[in-house]
Structure formats: structure tokens, C-alpha cells
Amino acid sequence: MNNENELDKLAIPILNQILTEAQDKWNNPNSKYISYRKLQIDKRGSFGERILKEFLSKIYYRRITIEYNDGDQGDWDLKYNNIKFEIKTSSLDVNDKFQNEGLKEKGDYDIIFFLGIAPDDLYIKFVKIEDIPFKKLHNREKRKTGRGYKWDFKKEQMKLITSLKEFKDEFEKVVTPNKSK
User: Fold this and answer.
1) Any domain includes 1
2) 179 inside domain
3) pTM of the predicted model, to two decimals?
4) Tens of pLDDT along 110-142?
5) In sequence order, which residues have a C-beta less than 8 Å from that of residue 142 and are 6 or more positions away?
6) In CATH, what number is assigned to the domain containing residue 122?
7) Does residue 181 belong to any structural domain of this protein?
8) Alpha carbon distances (Å) from 135 to 99, 109, 138, 139, 142
9) Which domain covers residue 141, as residue numbers?
């Protein structure tokens, strides 16, 4: 039974056009990470949190203490050897950027782990809170468009990773710089 009304006849073609525009990089049903886009927002965040936990557990399995509970723990999402991580997970958008929102200048975390999901690739970036250029970022509270700060990255501004070694190298550059030398 089709219960389409007059407004539906106008609204649904607009929605379909916007979906086509927004999904162009994600149109291939065979993309490795296509199902990520079907997750609810909070579950998308859980994916990033669990990725960090799993990767760290595989790399540093002998000398690691991880504190993680799926869900809200305050400003930080995961604690690794007493280092607090805020984890921002985003997917590649129609403008070829990863959008990250809700960054807190006075947040209770030490490092942000940015995980960018592209249709077939993973991108990462680690940034210490003191190295975040908050003055240059979009302040959503000040502009009354949301909470916290917004920081977008192009793919070139993040590191494409395909192995645990690449992940470890990026992790150690920022988190444990003396290990990477």
C-alpha cells in the first residue's frame, strides 16, 4: 500500500538527490568499510574506541594497562598506561574531509586519537591537547552552532595506515616519542 501524500512527492526526490550527493564516495557496495556508514553516531564512536583498544592490545600486549568501558566515561574514552585519550571517529564526507566535532579546550584528556574512515581505507592522527590550535578552530559554542570546537582534516593531513607497524610508528611519534627514535 502506497500512502504517499502531496508533501512526500516533493520531499522524497529531494532526499534522494541529497543522498546521492552525500554518498558518492560511498556508493560502491563492495567497499570494505561501507557498513560503518550505517551505524548510529554513538556506535560509530564505539568503533573508533574499540579500534584503538584492539590495536594497542596487539602491539603492546606485554606492557599495557588499558581502561575502557564502551559508553560515556567523561571527556576521555580510553586510558592507556595512565594517558587519557579522547577518540574522534569520522567518515570521509562529500567534500573529501573528515569532520571532527566536540573538541574541548579544557577537556580531561591528554591526547586525541583521530580515526578517519574512508570507503576502503583507515586514516589516523594523534595530537596532544596542548598542540591543538584551538584559536584557529571553529568554536561552535561561540557561534551558537553546537558544543566545543570543530576540526576538519583532509586525507593528506592524516596518515593512511595498512599495518600495525604503521599505526605503532604514528602512535610513538606523539604518545611515546622517545620509543620511535
Assistant:
1) no
2) no
3) 0.84
4) 999 999 999 999 999 999 999 999 988 988 666
5) none
6) 3.40.1350
7) no
8) 17, 18, 8, 8, 12
9) 6-174
What does the H/E/C string look like for the chain?
A: CCCCCHHHHHHHHHHHHHHHHHCHHHCCCCCCCHHHHHCCHHHHHHHHHHHHHHHHHHHCCCCCCEEECCCCCCCCCEEECCEEEEEEEEEECCCCEEEEEEECCCCCCCEEEEEEECCCCEEEEEEEHHHCCHHHCEECCCCCCCCCEEEEEEHHHCEEECCHHHHHHHHHHHCCCCCCC
What phi and psi, each to the nearest 5 degrees, are found at residue 116?
-105, 125
Residue in 82, 49, 47, 78 with CA at minimum distance from that of residue 63? 82
Which of 19-23, 25-29, 51-55 has the least mean pLDDT?
Answer: 19-23
- Reading the block at residue 113, the C-alpha cell is 586519537
